[in-house]
Amino acid sequence: MNGLFGYYILIGAIALVSWLVSNQLKRKFAKYSKVQLRNGMNGKEIAEKMLADNGISDVEVISVKGQLTDHYNPKNKTVNLSESVYNQRNAASAAVSAHECGHAVQHAQAYKALEMRSALVPIVSVTSGMSQWLVIGGLVLGAAAGVGLGYYVAVAGLIFMGFATVFSLITLPVEYDASNRALAWLKAKNVVTPEEYKGSEDALKWAARTYLVAAIGALASLLYWALQVFGGRD
User: What confidence tens digit (pLDDT) does each residue in 184-194 have?
Assistant: First the structure.
């Protein structure tokens, strides 16, 4: 029971940091959404130009509902931009559209970290939901003693949790690299002015921090439960 209480404290602390970073991200995007682009291009046009400049002709740019729902889908090769990013002409939309195209460029160039993350998606989608319950169930069955069914159940849960942790860690270079590609292209092609570039750079910096917090949380959770399982053994 003490282990579970400690876990709730850990998760609560991580959730608080995640909430703070997420709120700051929303404020940054609201701020840079007011910085209108001098070139008059909207997110869709910027995305199509970056794809074309990188010789990519088989990726479609489409609009999706929601806020901060932007993503690249490697399965059907689509850059999915939220309605505001798709239509608006500001530093925030430029940053997001270019970032998502950065993933398309990664895909086209067979970027290893992206391939590894994509390979883990079906595994994590199955294992992540049950990992914590397996560990807790194993501990209830006496896993800390290092013997019996409980121990093996808990270890299986840790392995499942490990997949999610590896996925979160691999996501970091994927996201940072996509942002670096986006910013390099925005600057090299003079798509944005120096002032607009600073806004795009700051927005992407805070977006990347959400993934960093998630990765730290996943790793901390894995280490915590591993200590609960293995820490009681002689």
Answer: 999 999 999 99
Q: By the 8 A CB rule, do 177 and 106 touch? A: yes
The values of phi and psi at residue 188, to 5°, are -65, -35
pLDDT tens digits, one per residue of 77-126: 999 999 999 999 999 999 999 999 999 999 999 999 999 999 999 999 99
How many Cα atoms sit within 13 Å of 206 on the Cβ side? 25
Query: Residues 54-77: pLDDT tens digits?
Result: 999 999 999 999 888 999 999 999
Rounded-to-integer distance, Cα 170 and Cα 172, Å: 5
Residue 15 identity (one-letter amino acid): A
Catalytic residue among 45, 48, 100, 196: 100
Residue 48 annotated in active site: no
Reported as a single tens digit per residue, the pLDDT across 14-36 is 899 999 999 999 999 999 999 99
Measured distance CA(94)–CA(85) in Å, rounded: 8
Residue in 64, 61, 34, 56 with CA at minimum distance from that of residue 45: 61
Angle (CA) 84-96-187 rounded to 5° is 130
**Are the beta carbons of 171 and 215 closer than 8 angstroms?**
yes
